[in-house]
Hints:
Oligomer: single chain
Distance between the termini: 66 Å
Number of helices: 10
Radius of gyration: 30 Å
Amino acid sequence: DSSSTGTGLTAAELAAQSDLRLLEGGESREALRPGPSHGVAAALAVGPVETREAPRYRILDRKAPFRQSYGRFGIRRLGNQSVAKMIRGADRFHSIVHQSTWKMLAYFSLVYVGSCFVFGLLFFAFGEKCDLHFETVAGAFLFSMESHSTIGYGLPASGDPQFNECIEMAITLPIQVMWSLICDSFLIGTLYARISRGQTRASSILFSDKAIIAAIDGIPYFMFQVCDSRKHSLLEANVRCYCFLQESAPDDTACFLQHRAMRLNHPDDELNGSLLLSTPSLVVHRIDKWSPLVAAAGIGISNDDKPPFIFPQILRRPIEEELQGSPVSVAQLREAFKSKWFEVVIMVEGVEPSTSSQVQARHSYTQDEIAWEKGFMPCTRIGSDGVVEVDLDRLNRLTAHFEPCTVPSYA
């Protein structure tokens, strides 16, 4: 049976089970159809959408200032949440680090105050025996906070510096000192990991607001610009691109989200896609028959052509195998993407030189963020003092037509 899956169930049976899980969760299948107010995973959990207009949803957000991305994937994970919580609970450190800063500080404040209160009750319980003379629990709590933060505290006037040599203090005080050291080290470590995380540094990597699809020598190319807004750029920076598209089962009963790697001509992905982010870099992907954009558009293959790419074959380049049939044109792509959805997700990675932390900046483009047959306005020039100047205001400006430019200056 061509429609059966590796689980022994047909695609129709899997779709029926999906409907049942949605109904058990209190949501109908119709409520999760693609729309501007629904998440991506919810939209992709349904059957194929029969509409002439391309659905409007996205994998990666574009809500940061200047139409940049916070790097947040709009994906909802379904299934057994109790098992997922157990898996995440096994890694408590990263579960805490991934919380917001205010939540993390609130957790540590509760642990700090709660532990001081517990030790304060112990000190109050054997205060008379150890010659501490606490009149209230509040006094014992304050004494516990002094013990938790330092050993050089002052005792009550009638107190004994040796605590009357009672065994309870000899046991409790070292335990509290060790616990305070553990709390302090854990707080400092998690705060440093939270503050120095690569996500905040990634906000300095700027991407052009629009990507362009333009023809060079009759062959369409997908292009965008990226630049580091800081003076000290990332070390060993490289770029990767993925195309997310929808694919239907052979019987058209289900819709699957797939992502395909996009080969890059510039920078050459065979050289690790290395980037120099000190000046704006133009990233170029050739839209040939092995391009995922052609698969997303569903065009460019005639009956006489050999299928260029069938998953999980290796993506090839035109130089690696002789092309058959006519290449796809910009006009064909533009018309096809009026009713087809795709999203290109870009990941720029590098090392921050100050902290040696790994940084990953994310960005994405959908069919609504493509400028057809446009070009990028040059945004670098040589200043009067001989220093290269980068005008970031021009990073998003487009020209009427794309013209390959080799002179990095403008009037």
